[in-house]
UniProtKB/TrEMBL annotation, chain A:
Protein name as annotated: Fe-S cluster assembly ATPase SufC
Molecular function via GO: ATP binding; ATP hydrolysis activity
InterPro entries per record: AAA+_ATPase (IPR003593), ABC_transporter-like_ATP-bd (IPR003439), FeS-cluster_ATPase_SufC (IPR010230), P-loop_NTPase (IPR027417)
Keywords: ATP-binding, Nucleotide-binding
UniProtKB/TrEMBL annotation, chain B:
Protein source organism: Streptomyces beijiangensis
Domain SUF system FeS cluster assembly SufBD core per the UniProt entry, residue ranges: 140-364
The name this protein goes by in its record: Fe-S cluster assembly protein SufD
Signal peptide: none
PANTHER family: PROTEIN ABCI7, CHLOROPLASTIC
Any one GO biological process: iron-sulfur cluster assembly
Lineage of source species: Bacteria, Bacillati, Actinomycetota, Actinomycetes, Kitasatosporales
InterPro entries noted in UniProt: Fe-S_cluster_assembly_SufBD, SUF_FeS_clus_asmbl_SufBD_core, SUF_FeS_clus_asmbl_SufBD_sf, SUF_FeS_clus_asmbl_SufD
Family per record: Belongs to the iron-sulfur cluster assembly SufBD family.
Domain of life of the source: Bacteria
Length: 255, 393
């Protein structure tokens, strides 16, 4: 069973005013089949955690380790991490002009699976996945994320998750900016992948809203670059009523 | 794509819209157009039309020292039935009708060529197969003249392929009869040492449609000068270009659309990618809308994607409007670095870095290719781009 282990992770970025430490010792273990929600206020470092684990070049790991089944993830290139089974649904998916969704999906599926999927079954696989996410088939011929609405971009991210079948999926605010219908469809997509029992999910969110559709096994409160508190789903209820205030005021993070 | 705010050091992106009584497109040339090389002084390099070009790499095309060798290039024309292919002498009436040499090298080519090739498509003939012209350099110096003539309402696609090694200066004339439709794909796929300087003159007949697709990959120095004028109202010209400038290469495209007749359209879109030390791309886009050209609709665009340090782009759009009665006119120029966030996105989906870079560059070009509107030509070009990227990115 695949396990992602993050140990004492410290990450900094270069800013105009010098180096800034954003992650200040993150510890987290996510196993295949589990769902962890990471909740925290804006600017607490949630995206930094997601990007660092995926290998974004802007973020420098200054200490700590990340392993997938004991393999050193930090030593892998971005594409090696993906081929090892990691997936990041981005908060702000990137536009790639002139590259069609169908070409993109097929190229990445070929890379992840190690061989080109058979054309006939592949076309059907993509069509079915798009239908269940209520995506217009015309999307396949559009350029990646170009002119997509916020909701379309997020559906497209989940479409990739369904097709690429990662061992560990990090979903960075996939719920933000979605209306209720889109939120439900996107959540159903995530749940379909979860029900296979073959993915460990790290659900990063600012709001508790998505947790009505996706029930986490664990909830972690993220504040000031580290996990301030961990618990079960009931912790989300507490956040719903009390907000993040207790964690953001100075010294409150030890609660 | 990263936009104009992201301009690599060493590039210039200047633009101007001038409203002038007298055209500066014409007056900033060091001499008026002429068929006689003696009317042009030997350039020293500071002239407006030569300031971006490394004269020392022209191998004498600019100063009279490049002497034609017996057989510098081999030209082979393959045309479907009904098309006339002739080799004619200098006195043929069709030669030089589409335009006049605008600079010293074009005039040198005109003064020096011995035989011209004339390809004619009779009026109302609609070709289903392209005309192919293979220009293959065999290491010599050559001066050429090519005429492609379409009678009224004729339709044709012409594919000109340049390969091998040569020092070549040429003029290419496109004569479009009323209502004719001509698409020309000119591919510069030269070997590394080749030098190719050419002026393309299109004379677009009344209600005729001219589509030019220029694809420059190879050569040490390639300098092309596509020019369009209109023989009557209602003409439509689309000038597309793609270039991939590798280390040490100089690739220069200088365009002029002279809107001299009313109710004509022009659309110019050139895109280039550069990589490697001293890769140098130059794009000059001149559009002149004369006082008589009421109802003109014109747009020009140049985009450059800089993949590595050490490459340089000079992009200069220039729009001159002498009448207020136009349908539209605009220009855009942007030079950006390779966008690392696109690379990250693709890599995060398992796609290896090299392949991801190729996808992004291919996409950059594909956006333009998709506008050509001829599936055959589009497919062939994308295959060509794939091969070029496979070999070099
Ligand atoms: N590339 C960067 N350059 C400078 N500061 C950054 C960068 N990325 C993130 N930050 C800063 O790090 C902090 C955490 O950001 P982020 O990880 O995006 O938080 P969250 O996702 O929780 O909203 C913020 O203060 C943000 O401004
Ligand atoms: Mg974030």
């Amino acid at each position: 069973m695949a396990t992602l282990e993050i140990r004492d992770l410290h990450v900094s970025v270069e800013t105009e005013n010098g180096t800034k430490e954003i992650l200040k010792g993150v510890d987290l273990t996510v196993k295949q089949g589990e769902t962890h929600a990471i909740m925290g206020p804006n600017g607490s470092g949630k995206s930094t955690l997601a990007y660092s684990v995926a290998g974004h070049p802007k973020y420098t790991v200054t200490s700590g380790t990340v392993t997938l089944d004991g393999e050193d993830v930090l030593a892998m290139t971005v594409d090696e991490r993906a081929r090892a089974g990691m997936f990041l649904a981005m908060q702000y998916p990137v536009e790639v002009p002139g590259v069609s969704v169908s070409n993109f999906l097929r190229t990445s599926a070929t890379a992840i699976r190690g061989e080109a999927p058979k054309l006939r079954t592949w076309v059907k696989e993509v069509r079915t996945a798009m239908e269940t996410l209520q995506m217009d088939p015309a999307f396949a011929e559009r350029n990646v994320n170009e002119g997509f609405s916020g909701g379309e971009k997020k559906r497209h991210e989940i479409l990739q998750m369904e097709l690429l079948k990662p061992k560990i999926a990090i979903l960075d605010e996939t719920d933000s900016g979605l209306d209720v219908d889109a939120l439900r469809q996107v959540s159903e997509g995530v749940n379909r992948v979860r029900e296979t029992g073959e993915v460990g999910t790290l659900l990063i969110t600012h709001y508790t809203r998505i947790l009505r559709y996706i029930t986490p096994d664990f909830v972690h409160v993220f504040a000031n670059g580290r996990i301030a508190e961990s618990g079960g789903p009931e912790l989300a209820d507490k956040l719903e009523t009390e907000g993040y205030e207790a964690y953001t005021t100075k010294g409150g993070a030890s609660a | 794509m990263a936009e104009a705010q992201n301009i690599p050091a060493g590039s210039t992106t200047a633009g101007s819209i001038a409203v002038a009584a007298e055209s500066t497109v014409a007056t900033r040339m060091s001499a008026p157009p002429s068929f006689d090389v003696a009317d042009f002084p030997v350039p020293h390099g500071r002239e407006e039309e030569w300031r971006f070009t490394p004269l020392d790499r022209l191998r004498g095309l600019h100063d009279g020292t490049a002497v034609a060798t017996g057989e510098g290039v081999r030209v082979e024309v393959t045309a479907p039935d009904g098309v006339t292919v002739e080799t004619v002498g200098r006195d043929d009436a069709r030669i030089g009708r589409a335009g006049t040499p605008a600079d010293r090298v074009a005039a040198q080519a005109y003064t020096s060529f011995e035989k011209a090739s004339v390809v004619s498509v009779p009026k109302e003939a609609v070709l289903t197969e392209p005309i192919r012209i293979a220009v293959h350099g065999i290491g010599g110096v050559a001066y050429g003249h090519q005429v492609i003539e379409l009678g009224a309402y004729a339709e044709a696609v012409v594919v000109i392929d340049h390969t091998g090694d040569a020092v070549l200066a040429a003029n290419v004339d496109y004569l479009l009869g009323d209502g004719a439709k001509l698409t020309v794909v000119s591919v510069q796929d030269w070997d590394d040492k080749a030098v190719h300087v050419a002026q393309h003159n299109a004379l677009v007949g009344r209600d005729a449609t001219f589509k030019s697709i220029v694809v420059t990959f190879g050569g040490d120095l390639v300098r092309l000068h596509p020019r369009v004028t209109y023989a009557g109202p209602g003409g439509d010209a689309e000038l597309f270009g793609l270039y991939f400038t590798d280390k040490g290469q100089h690739q220069e495209h200088r365009l002029l659309v002279d809107h001299n007749a009313p109710n004509c359209k022009s659309n110019v879109a050139y895109k280039g990618a550069l990589q490697g030390q001293d890769a140098h791309a130059v794009w000059i886009g001149d559009v002149l809308i004369q006082a008589a050209a009421e109802g003109t609709d014109s747009y020009e665009l140049n985009r450059n994607l800089v993949l590595t340090d050490g490459a340089r782009v000079d992009s200069v759009p220039n729009l001159e409007i002498e009448t207020g009665e136009i349908a539209g006119a605009g220009h855009a120029s942007a030079t950006g670095r390779f966008d690392d966030s696109q690379l990250f996105y693709l890599q995060s989906r398992g796609i290896p870095a090299d392949e991801a870079r190729r996808l992004v560059v291919r996409g950059f070009f594909a956006e333009l290719v998709q506008q050509i509107g001829l599936p055959d030509v589009e497919e062939r070009l994308l295959a060509k781009i794939d091969a070029e990227l496979e070999a070099s990115v």
